[in-house]
Amino acid sequence: MGCDIVKTFFLICISIMMLAGCGVATKTEPASETLSAITLHFLAASSTVNVAEELAAKFEQEHGIKVKVITGPTNALAQQILSGAPADLFLAASPKWVEPLTEQQLVAETKPLLGNRLVIAVPVGNPAGLNSPADLRKDGVKQIALAGENVPAGIYAEETLHKFKLYDELLAAEKIVRGHDVRVTLNYIERGEVEAGIVYATDVIGSTHAEAVYTFPDDVSPTIVLPVTLLKNSRHPEEAKRFYDELSSPASRGVYKRCGFTPLD
Length: 265
What we know:
Number of helices: 11
Structural class: alpha/beta
Number of strands: 11
Largest sheet: 6 strands, mixed
Order of helices and strands: HHEHEHEHEEEHHEHEHEEHHE
Radius of gyration: 27 Å
Shape: elongated
């Protein structure tokens, strides 16, 4: 009987040791999968889709951390963040749309990242023969595409046309059509559905169906600054901060320049 008690006690000890060993394995196992299980949500203005996707892919390749790029009009992306949608970083086409996030205490850090310019763009070959803002008055110009009224590119374009005293005249002549965002506006131009449009200089770079015929000078065009924001409600703050910092790295600056942006940070 004594032997049976000893044997039972021995078996219990072995079981406890095995369970303890399993417990250790359970705790350490996820650590090796942590980075691969993380997905950062990078909300980026439509005009930055090319650089956003390239830098997201580069970060994922180098760090094993997935970055999901979500693009759209800046105002719509800001509303998504305010509504509680998953978001770690926000690259806006205007500082204006960072302000409501700051008011709601959703901003951990923000900085100016990129600069851009406005251009008059036309279908390749410039069928309407446009060379200046005044040419938008021509009878042969039936439609001029601008981005939406609440979209930064549309706001900038409207402000600029007002400085040339053209906006009210073009609006009264029913020449102005609006795209959902700047990419849709560019598509109108590329497909020849309009004679001209006002978009960012970077939108035309790489396009095989549109070309810029006039760049608005700094003294009449609003200063275009694209800030990047690290959000407080990030589910992965350390990894998001790492990506935020790398967006200002020399390698990232090289990408911006190649795509036509002016690095500001």
